Amino acid sequence: MNGVVKGLCKGAAVSAVTVVIALTGVGFYLALMLLVIAMEEGGENLTVHALPFAQTTLLLAQGIGFDWGAFRLTITPLLLTLLIIGMIRAWCLRWGTGWPVFLGGLCTWTAITAGMAGNVEATLIDPWWLMLAKSAAVFTFGFGTAVFGSPATRESLSERYRALTGAVVRRIGRVSAATGAIIIAIYLILGTGTVLVWAIRNHGTVAELFSLADMQIGSRILTTIACVVWLPNLCLWGLSWVFGGGFSVGDVATFTLWVSRSDGLPAVPVFGVFPDAVDNDPLRIVLMLLPLVIGLIAGLTVMLLPRCFGIGIPRTFQEYDHRSIAKDFICSAVALCLTAAMVSVAFAALFACSNGALGHQRLSHVGVDVMQSTRIIGQATLVGLFTAWLLVLVGVYAVFGIRWARERHTGQRRERISQPHDGVTNHESAITPRVVNSTHQAKEEQGDNNESAD
Fold first, then answer.
1. Distant-in-sequence, close-in-space partners of 203: CB < 8 Å, separation ≥ 6
2. Which pLDDT does position 290 carry in this prediction?
3. Measured distance CA(257)–CA(442) in Å, rounded
4. How far is it between the farthest Cα atoms of the chain?
5. How far is CA 321 from CA 12, 312, 315, 318, 326, in A?
6. Is 209 helix (H, G, I), strand (E, B) or coil?
7. Cα separation of 234 and 79, whole Å?
8. Residue 16 to residue 137: CA distance in whole angstroms
9. Signal peptide location in the record (predicted)?
10. How far from the centroid of its chain's Cα atoms is residue 163's Cα?
11. Helical H runs in 165-273?
12. pLDDT digits (tens, 9 = 90+) for 66-116
């Protein structure tokens, strides 16, 4: 009983400490930013609104949007969400990951969320049950990462996994999970690099928008840093753009590799980093082929690497084990299917979380088309993976066919060479030479013999 109570208290401490740290950090930063803006731009002191703004920001990080007059914001700052999840994970790893800890932390976390929701100055969009459900999902995700990050839990789950599955299933699961995680990481790095290229190429446009807004240097720096919490959202939109999907800012702006339309875009400085269309056709084709090439390289690695499936070409014709080779090809095909499914599901969820709204009508949808972008990434990755599978399949059995034909040709040649030799030997053995035994006699002896006969 004491252990359960202690676990509940630890869970409550996890939630309380996480909220205090996040609220303090965000609140102090917002207070500093509002103070600098008030000093540089003039007007009333806005620091008194720092705490309600911080609470609204924490709610927004959990996917709870709000209305502020005619302004609506539902785009989740994914970087802040990841930081909150990371803090929950760190405290759970330190204080425990048992069921009492989870229940105590979940109840405390949802209670704090309900308290903040009733104290904000903005109008929250979601009903109460949905807000609590989103809040519980954030805490559960953070706690789940801590559970799977615990060495004892991993060892226990690993033992159960080995007991319930065979070696082939474990091999397929290990390879598909590792390959999918690597492909997802590569894609996210590509998205981040794309946003960095946008920022470098379009920093002049951002400076012009700051000048149009008549913002001073301190306000520029602090507001730019504040926008960093939406950097993962931009990276996902950049990934969709570089692979050919594109993204839109409501009905007023569309950005793809072919089109860059931003006639009615609000003069927000962060919008200045959005890209222009790519006029170079070969470059556009190369960018669209990136997921296929990455899938091809990943598939070849899975097929040929000894730590994965290690499908190779035997040195001799006699070493071909067709049953083992067929088994490896079937297992690798299943692993590649699971990898493509994992990539598609992951990016469908990430794209859905990155979207949101900046208004009620024309800006009611900001982000990517989830179905279209997921289809582009998933299909290109799948084509690349199975192109690698087919290349290895054709290569292995092409070499097998060549060696089989060569072995057959060599055997026939040996038979042709051996047949005339055998025929000559049999013919010679069938003919028995005639041996005549005769004794040479001299003429005198022959004459004497004749006379005696007379």
1. 273
2. 95
3. 119
4. 172
5. 60, 11, 12, 8, 9
6. helix
7. 11
8. 17
9. none
10. 28
11. 167-201, 203-212, 217-227, 231-242
12. 998 778 899 999 999 999 999 999 999 998 888 899 999 999 999 999 999
Dist CA 153 CA 147 (whole Å) = 6
Sheet architecture: strand order including 260-261? 260-261, 253-255, 247-249, 366-367
Whether the CB-CB separation of 82 and 232 falls below 8 Å is answered with yes
Tell me the CB-side half-sphere exposure of residue 123, using CA atoms within 13 A: 7
* CA dist., res. 152 & res. 154, Å (int): 5
pTM: 0.86
Tell me which residue has tokens 């996917």.
63
Token output for 262: 């931003």
Q: Cα separation of 128 and 358, whole Å?
A: 22
* Cβ count within 10 A of residue 261: 14
What does the alpha-carbon distance between residue 124 and residue 74 come to, in Å, rounded to a whole number? 10
Residue 261: strand pairing partners: 254
User: Are residues 192 and 185 in contact, defined by beta-carbon separation less than 8 angstroms?
Assistant: no
Percent of the chain with pLDDT over 90: 54
Give residue for tokens 């008549």: 214
Q: Which two structure tokens, joined as six digits, stand for 302?
A: 């899975």
What tokens does 164 get?
A: 């319930």
CA separation for the pair 129, 294 (Å, rounded): 42
Measured CA distances, 109 to 17, 88, 96, 160, 383 (Å): 10, 10, 16, 31, 44
- Helix (H) or strand (E) holding 4, with range, is helix 2-41
Specify the pLDDT at position 412. 59
Give which of 249, 271, 253 is closest to 262, Cα–Cα. Answer: 253
How confident is the model over 233-266, as pLDDT tens digits?
999 999 999 999 999 998 889 999 998 887 778 7
Q: Scan for tokens 């997802």, then name that residue.
A: 184
- Which tokens sit at 253? 């702006």
